[in-house]
Here is the input.
Amino acid sequence: MEVAINYLAILGAVVAAVVLGSLWYGPLFGKAWMREVGLTADDVTKAKTDPSAKNAMLRSYALMTLSSVVMAYVLVHTLAFASAYTQTSGIAAGLMAGFWSWLGFVVPVSLGPVLWENKSWRYWFITSGYYLVNLLIMGVILASFPV
Here is the structure.
């Protein structure tokens, strides 16, 4: 099955992911997330002023943006396959593809750090919650702007 891809919709989904990440790990859950991963305000200040830390931060943002491109691209395919088999389209299909992708792929993988690496459930809810909301938004954007 060949999947038609709207690259502008993918770009929109990636921009939405970056904006969501800025809000999620900033004003919404930033302080709680920083506590969970052991970062302090001094670490953030250093990342803004130290050239090597700043470069590492920029590299992390670039890789996260690239991973959002991959996620949106794969979600387009998931959406196409789900729509073909369920005869569901539009926003409902986008929400369904986003939710089932999160439940089937993000949840099992993201439980590992809690179960084996002593990360807290609070950490899990913050990070997996981001991916749930992200995949739902991406699904809606991708389903709303087909080719």
Summary: The chain is about 85% helix and 0% strand. The chain has a mean pLDDT of 92. Residues 117 and 142 are 35 Å apart (CA to CA).
